[in-house]
Amino acid sequence: MIEPPDLKSLDGAAKDALILALFDRINALIAENGQLKDRVAKLEAKLGGPPKTPDNSSLPPSRGQKASGAASSKPKGKPHAGSHRALHPDPTRTLAVRAERCPHCAGDVSGATQTVCERYDRIELPEIKPDVTRVVLHGGICPCCAKRFKAPPPAGLAPGSPFGPGLRAFAIYLRFAHAVSFERLSRLMSDLLGVEISEGALVNMLDGSRPAFARQASLIRARLLASSILQSDETSVRVGTQTWWTWVFHHGDDCCFLIRPSRGKDVVAEFLGEVRPDFWVSDRLAAQIGWAGKDNQVCLAHLLREAQYAIDAGDTIFAPALRKLLQRACGIGARRASLADATLRAYAYQLDARLTPCCAAPPSMLQDVIKGCRRHLFVFLANRAIPPTNNGSEQALRPCVIFRKVTNCFRSEWAARLYADIRSVLETARRRSIRAIDAIRLTLDERPLPIGP
Predict the structure, then answer these.
(1) What sign does the CA torsion over 146, 150, 155, 159 have?
(2) What percent of the chain has pLDDT over 90?
């Protein structure tokens, strides 16, 4: 509370100055009150808007809630088409069993002509036992020079870690492909393999594999940067007590991951170096815009979700027309393989022409978004290798999100960077139809991943 001045002690000029100061203060309070009212109105409008869901925003599917579906009308007990497991293409052994007695009359049929009536497999796991090679190096004193000598270790059996590449590959596979925690991994090794490995030894095993995976990831990055098209996206990750970001850069059968503390353009600049691809596919995050040498394709799936949110918020003019147009564009993109170049050019012209009257609707926030990225909507129709959406990036990041939820991420920076390199190897191997365990073995053996025909 401000005490009022003694008005009796003020002369006329002082009172006039006080009155003017009070008017200035009143005007300032009126302006501030107007700003606060506008802010409250915007917040109330936001609270009254539709909820964000995976269908109208970038929320992951796990954050959504599916409505209960109608009960199945399929009658119970109705027979269905039978199915059977395909026989193994390379069985370990084959047992050809011939009948000796007739099951009807018990007569001897061992000499009768018999044909194959049935084939089936019986699959079993052999007893899992560790293969331990004990190396004993002998030595002595040289009779010629009287110096001590020791036999050299056999190739591949040098002193150091007692765990061979097969066991190391198995541990890395379970840890990073299936998000098995160190405690459970240690118990699994003991219970299933009969090998006692402490959690610390598992950490040392991963630490020792860092150079091999870094080399393999660098080969993938070099091949990826030689492409004329790049796609990118990012998601959050915890490293220690801080929020970092998992970035993915990919196209075709190459995929590279980075985990960095930034979500800005510095990460993209670090990955690209001096390289600038011709085309870039991404969402509208500012850090991912402006890197293409020729053009950028924005993700139509993101725009479809934003259009759905605008429809949920009450837009009955622009958003429905835009959603229909984008759905048609994605449908054309799915049929590009069967369409001629001239047909694709005609479709691009038609889509852009239909967008013009849509933009003439009453102004809205979504309309401003479309006007800002209009020239980047249908780039995929001029280049068949460019996808219309960035769904490939989201699919590549999905295992990272699962790993984050299961393991609560990383305690150290080196573990986060190792995971990015291993994830690069595993995702690239998947795209090249290479088994994950085989890709890990190739990497530990310092051999590059094969490239398909």
Answers:
(1) negative
(2) 57
